[in-house]
Write a structure and sequence with these properties.
Blueprint (H helix, E strand, L loop, with lengths): L3 E5 L2 E6 L20 E3 L1 H11 L4 E4 L1 E3 L2 H12 L8 E3 L6 E6 L5 E6 L13 H6 L2 E7 L3 H17 L3 E6 L7 H7 L1 H4 L4 E2 L3 H8 L4 H8 L6 E5 L5 E4 L4 E4 L13 H14 L4 H15 L12 H11 L2
Parallel strand pairs: 1-4, 1-9, 2-7, 5-6, 9-10, 10-11, 11-12
Antiparallel strand pairs: 2-3, 7-8, 12-13, 13-14
Length: about 325
Amino acid sequence: MKQVYCVGLLVCDIPLWPVPSEIFSRDRCTIEKPLWGVGGDAANVAVALNKLGIPTTFTGLMGKDMYGEFLARGLKEAGVDIRGLKEHPTMGSGVSHIIIEPGGERHFLVYRDINDELDYSCVCEELIAESDIVYLGSCMCLEGMDNGGTAELFRKAKSLGKITVTDFGGSGELKGDYWLKHLDQVLRNCDILMPSMREATALTGEVELPRIRETLSDYDIKTLVVKLGAQGCYLTDFKDEWMIPTFPEFPVVDTTGAGDSFVAGFIRGILEGWDNQSSAVFACSVASHNVTKVGATAGVPDFDTAYRYVKEHRR
């Protein structure tokens, strides 16, 4: 059975829903019962992959607190192998309060200082060796990994013949000159790069997809997937390019984790042996299902459900 090793951001998600956009001009509003959930890009991808039938191992940092206990239990109950999960002796676990508007758009209030302590010393090399794909979640959002850790992780993975995948977690304020130079060794050891459009712009300094593609063509990236939200994604192998639409018929309740479930769907397709286009269409199906429920991975379907929908509705 194919396996994926996920490394990166881990937080306890606490969604607050529905919150009207004018909340700061109101004294109070009534919301649904907040339900804790496992969150953070890497953790979300790990959980989503398990729902899609792929075993995953995970490395991230938690604190010695009630949030850490919940995260360890939640990952284990989701089927994630937590041999690589690390407990920090003094810092508190990451926590993300997610403010969700009635239309599904979300905003984050995040404490995640502990995640900056994650570095290559936390990585389990035996888990790299066991896996077929190594995924780093939240590049440019993890100080310890960003300062050489991710590059070392990918170099080790590539030396063992593994496929390397990353997406981003930065807010996008920094422009391409900094990100591009900072991530030089990561990009030279990355097989599949999966930023959002804002993150791709922050990485390259470019605002048009052809220019983003051209800038990144100087590296050793084999596949670039730019996530475009409700519009689907832009996909290129630097020879050909495609625009892959999403499935708009799904009602949007919460977009938290939509990008992460898309990443999981794409990885699942690659492990199935599909080409990039088929993997991207399947990923759109997974993400479209996921946004119908509150929570980063609550709406992720099983493999058969997502695949059947593609077969019945592929355009």
